[in-house]
Structures are given as C-alpha cells and as structure tokens.
Design a protein that fits this description.
The strands form 2 sheets. The chain has an 8-stranded mixed beta sheet, sandwiched between helices. Strands 11-10-9-12-13-14 form a 6-stranded parallel beta sheet, with helices on both faces. Helix 6 (180-190) links the parallel strand 7 and strand 8 (197-199). The protein is an alpha/beta fold. Helix content is 45%, strand content 17%.
Length: 410
C-alpha cells in the first residue's frame, strides 16, 4: 500500500500506528494523558510512525494537522452505531451509510499505510473499524483499549445494542484493559475468553512530569496549612460526595486544613456545589473545573496529601502522577487501585462509600508526617520501577508484533 510522506520519508518507518480518540487530544482527562504518552512511546520505540485519529463531526474529509507538541493528528467524521439516546433509527441510518464510512476508512488506511488501529475509550467509531477488519477492508490489527467508564457503559446495554458490542469485542484482535481488575470485569460481563483480554497498566514519564511541574511554577500557599487534593471529573463514580463528608470530619480536627478538587465539569457538579455549602465548607474547599493539565500538576506538586475517593477506578492516571511526585496517598480499595497501592506500605487504602474510614485515613497521614513521607517515597519508587510510560508503550508494541506474527504463522 502507498504511504504518506509523514510516516515514511521522514524516518523510514514501515507504516502507521493509529491511535483513535473520540475527542480532541487537548481535552482534559486521564485518557488523553495515556494516548499522548503512548504516541510518544510508539515514536520512541516502534517501527511504525504514530498518528492520532480524532473523531470530528465537522470534518467529513480527513484533515491532517500537527499539534503544538509535534504530534500528527487527522480529524475525520465517523458515524457511531448508536446515538446518546440509543434510538433504533440512528442504528438504521448507521448501517445505511456504512458503505460510505468503510470507503472513507479504506482511503485513510491507504493514505497513511495504517498497520495498527488502537481505539481508546470504546463505544463509538471503533465499531466501524472492527466491521472494516471483519470485511477484509483493513488487514492490519485492531486493538480496543478500555479505560473503565467505557466498558461499564456498554455493560449496561441490553438487546441488540449489547449484542453488537459483544460481537465487536470478540472480533477485535485484542481487548486491552488498563488493570487486571478491569480485565476480569470485562471478561465476566461479556463472556470473553481469558486469552482475548490483555492487561497493560497505564504508565507515567516521571522525568517529563517533573519538567512540566517546573514549567508550571510553584503554587501559592501558606506553609503551615495542610493541603489535600483530589483530581477527577465531577461524576458519580469519583465519589466527591464521600470525600466532602470525610473532609468535614477532618476539618473539625484540623481547622486550617484545605481541600482542592480539580476536574472536568460533569453530572454531579450542581450536587457537589450544594453539598459544599450544606456542610459549611465554602471557605475550606476550592472547586476548580476544567483546568489545564499543567495547572493540575502545579497543584499536585504542592499538595500534602492526594486523596482518591472513587467508587470505581480502573487505573487512575492522577494516582500514578501523585506517586511519581512522591505524594502520600489515601485511596479507596476499588478495581485497579490495589494493583498500585500497597496498604500500609505505599499509601493508605480504605473501603469505598465510607466517609468515616476515608477521614481516618486522611487524619492518620496528617498526624504522622514521618509515615506519610515514607509512603510517598516508596510509592515513587514503585511507580518508577513498574509503571513507566516506556513499559506501557513497549507492552502495546509487543502485543501488536505478537498479533502480526500469529497472523503470519497462522
């Protein structure tokens, strides 16, 4: 197949490793941090050239761009099989226009010599890539990467919708989960065999993280004021209501303690704003929405304790970043969190949905700064040795190579 000068003439690579995301790569959130890091890892280690495909309804024809970080991005309209209201008519229109969608994919594949398609946050255009693969219109490998909320949204479906997504998960070359807990959940929900679901943990580049922190500058704060931080979208699964009820207890014992909550605005925003007022915490809690990643890192670097209050968490990128910066951590014992945090060694884990337990965990670190510092140091060592961006990228590339080798020998 012909190749694009972006992927061949510049560095002689064999084709393209395409990372598919349903939103701009500049959007705030952990998934984008994973994808941006994987792009850089593929560029560093891979025989293929990385490229991002951003699904964009405003671009019926492929629009190739380069972002401020030098990443090659193609924006392209791709229809989803279901709309947010899950209307049957939308599905009918999807299949009616599918031939045009497949033709668009075939042209994109030829233009950029695409060998691997790695879809992140499953539930949209990835379905069409699986169809193209099944029909022989794309002969490369399709990897579906799960990040938590995506597979749980699909698991709630019933009837034809669940059946179609179950088919897509089974027909992909591999399903990748970012934690063992999420892999087990996915296999259980969709009856997938163990050899179809691969666990590849998220990773972080500690050196680049420190550079970003240095570039962001130091946050202004009073040295004697304990500062707690939570990073997470305002959605039910993040458990901000539990965190606020826990902090109300902490605030009574530590009258100067402050809590910062940073994340994307979401479904629970109004309820969280109201709860802050109802608990009398307006002067003690700073709620900052949709802040750039660099500013979130600045807050993280100056925080005394990072608190993860989630009801469910596949494998938190924010938790990894806190660990890379050596921050003491209190986290709920859910899904992939125990794969990173060793209770009493690299942090404090508490049951989810338990404000009292979360408050006790926070107070234990506030009142024993020596232990808190030791936890942070051990967690930094653990992240640096086992959960690096290089390790994540190499795992993805090894998986793609193994799948390609199986296809040749098979």
């Amino acid at each position: 197949m012909p190749s694009n000068p972006d992927t061949r003439q510049e560095d002689g690579r064999e084709g393209t490793y395409l990372l598919v995301v349903p939103w701009p790569l500049t959007a705030v959130g952990g998934v984008n941090q994973v994808v941006a890091g994987l792009y850089d890892g593929v560029k560093k280690f891979g025989r293929l050239a990385p490229r991002v495909l951003q699904i964009s309804w405003q671009d019926p024809a492929p629009l190739d761009t380069v972002d401020s970080a030098g990443r090659h991005i193609t924006r392209l309209r791709m229809r989803y099989p279901f709309d947010p209201a899950w209307r049957l008519g939308h599905l009918v229109r999807y299949f009616a226009t599918l031939p045009v969608e497949l033709l668009r994919i075939r042209r994109l594949v030829k233009t950029h010599a695409i060998r691997v398609v790695n879809c992140h946050y499953v539930g949209g255009a990835d379905f069409t890539w699986v169809v193209a693969k099944s029909l022989g219109l794309f002969r490369g490998k399709v990897l579906l990467s799960l990040h938590g909320l995506d597979i749980r949204t699909l698991a709630r479906l019933r009837g034809i919708r669940r059946g179609l997504w179950g088919w897509a998960l089974r027909r992909a070359d591999a399903v990748v989960a970012c934690s063992r807990g999420l892999a087990e959940e996915t296999m259980r929900e969709f009856g997938l065999p163990e050899d179809r679901v691969v666990t590849i943990h998220n990773g972080v580049d500690a050196a680049r993280l420190m550079q970003a922190v240095a570039a962001a500058g130091e946050a202004t704060r009073e040295a004697d004021v304990p500062m707690l931080l939570n990073l997470g979208t305002l959605e039910y699964k993040k458990g901000h209501d539990v965190l606020l009820r826990a902090f109300a207890q902490v605030a009574r014992s530590h009258p100067t303690a402050q809590l910062q909550i940073m994340g994307r605005s979401g479904e629970t925003k109004d309820a969280i704003v109201k709860l802050i007022a109802d608990l009398g915490l307006a002067s003690r809690v700073a709620l900052m929405l949709d802040v750039p990643h660099q500013l979130a890192l600045r807050a993280l670097s100056s925080a005394d304790i990072f608190v993860l209050s989630s009801r469910n968490e596949a494998f938190s990128v924010a938790l990894l970043e806190a660990g890379a910066l050596g921050k003491p951590v209190v986290a709920t014992e859910v899904c992939g969190v125990p794969e990173l945090i060793e209770n009493g060694q690299t942090g404090v884990m508490v049951p989810s949905e338990d404000p009292d337990a979360l408050a006790r965990g926070i107070l234990a670190l506030l009142e024993n700064r020596s232990s808190a510092s030791e936890y942070g140091s051990r967690l930094r060592e653990r992240v640096g040795s086992r959960f690096t961006l290089d390790a994540t990228s190499r795992s993805y590339l090894t998986l793609a190579d193994c799948l390609a080798a199986e296809a040749v020998t098979g």
